[in-house]
Amino acid sequence: MQAGRTLTPRGAATRARIVEAAAELMYVKGVNATTLDDVRAASSTSKSQLYNHFPDKEELVRAVVASRAAQILERERGYLQRLKSFRGLVRWRDALVQRNALQNGAYGCALGSMASELADQDDQARTVLAQSFVEWEGLLAAGLQRMRDSGALRADADPEKLATGLMAALQGGYLLAETAHDIRPMEVALDMALDHVRSFLTA
Amino acid sequence: MQAGRTLTPRGAATRARIVEAAAELMYVKGVNATTLDDVRAASSTSKSQLYNHFPDKEELVRAVVASRAAQILERERGYLQRLKSFRGLVRWRDALVQRNALQNGAYGCALGSMASELADQDDQARTVLAQSFVEWEGLLAAGLQRMRDSGALRADADPEKLATGLMAALQGGYLLAETAHDIRPMEVALDMALDHVRSFLTA
DNA sequence: CGCGGTCAGGACCATCCAGTCCATGCCGCG
DNA sequence: CGCGGCATGGACTGGATGGTCCTGACCGCG
Question: Which nucleotides of strand C lie within 7 A of protein CB?
């Protein structure tokens, strides 16, 4: 199985099943703690399928990273594409908090936890993750820019920096919540970032 | 070797060497990517010494966590014990940024990266880490409380929440910096949190 | 100075896990 | 309907890694 091959529908489905199962396991247990045998069992496939689709575990990990990044950016686009008011930002915050509350904060951010684990281990994965964060912040920055253009935000507001601040608060909040098994730090952190944006609101 | 044993000076030194070497390796490579053989080599000891001092790897990891937490809290106490002005907070920020700049943001926060890796893996370690974050935030909160008491901060400032916000910005900043290999996101995040505190300054 | 116990050294073992391989089955195309 | 190739299954292997154990050195105490 070479890269760029055209897959039959069945093959593509199997590949997707593998990536999805691996993503879930790696999210819950961590990348390094997830064995290929775990993935095999969870995806109801076999060892040779794994190696038909991925030359080695590293490539599977990269596929998982790409898949998760695409998934999250897709979801975030839903929230942020039309962002143009402070209320929209509050809704964004609420949706993230609520989603994380479902699991009591455990596991953290799917991108953030992989970033932390892979940053010192797979430079290629790290780059993709970094790029994903940039895109994610870009969605926020674009919304903030629209708010500025419409006069909701003052002219001296820097959408890029505000977006970075929001993302850092989000990621830091995820981490503290994951460690404490309590989502309140995440709420507090996001509220701080939101307050910061609010301080640039006109009138 | 049982817990609570009194060690000879030599034994204590060996134990400390092991923990220190393990801490460094786990910080740079990650906990799971660090093998006991790595630790043995880096600490110039032998396998049986490892097992003389620690029943298994998990306990070594816990010792590393405890050691790192103590180390960081000690360092932070130096910065925060006498914190009583906004300028002091800025100095705190600068010191952290400068320290992280030395390695171009790589590796992140020694506590944060272990928290992310161990949270879903060792509940005992997670609890210690959570407690350490609480203490760390406590140092910040105490300083902010002093600022409030002295009238530097308004009465409606909540030191606890401000401290949590600072910590989240710090941790999120570390993560983004580590992923991007660029400390600017960390600076931006901390500046946001500092601005937030500034918004509670009197006059 | 010698003796008991603690510490150091490193060979050794068992397990786990990434990665290989070959036999079988299914699918689409002619 | 038959054929060629792709997908599938799972047994197998080599090596890494956590953990054990035995031997010998050192240290403090009598």
Answer: 6-12, 16-22, 27-28
User: How far apart are the CA of B84 and the nearest CA of chain A, in angstroms?
Assistant: 21
Two tokens, residue A172: 């830091």
Q: How far is CA B17 from CA B4, B21, B61, in A?
A: 18, 6, 14
A14-25 pLDDT, tens digit per residue, is 899 999 999 999
Q: Provide the positions of strand D that have an atom within 7 A of a protein CB.
A: 6-12, 16-22, 27-28
End-to-end CA distance of chain A: 61
Is B168 in contact with A180 (Cβ distance < 8 A)?
Answer: no
Beta bridge partners of B153: B201
Q: Write the DSSP assignment of B5-58 as a string of letters.
A: PPPPHHHHHHHHHHHHHHHHHHHHH-STT--HHHHHHHTT--HHHHHHH-SSHH
Q: Which of A60, A54, A77, A191 has the alpha carbon at shortest distance from A132?
A: A77
pLDDT of residue A12: 82
Mean pLDDT of A169-183: 98
Minimal C-alpha gap between A28 and chain B (Å): 7
Q: Is the pLDDT higher at B138 or at B49?
A: B138
Mean pLDDT score, B114-140: 97
- pLDDT at position B4 is 42
DSSP state of A8: P
Contact criterion met (CB below 8 Å) for A170 and A80: no
In this predicted structure, the answer to whether residue A8 has a pLDDT above a threshold of 90 is no
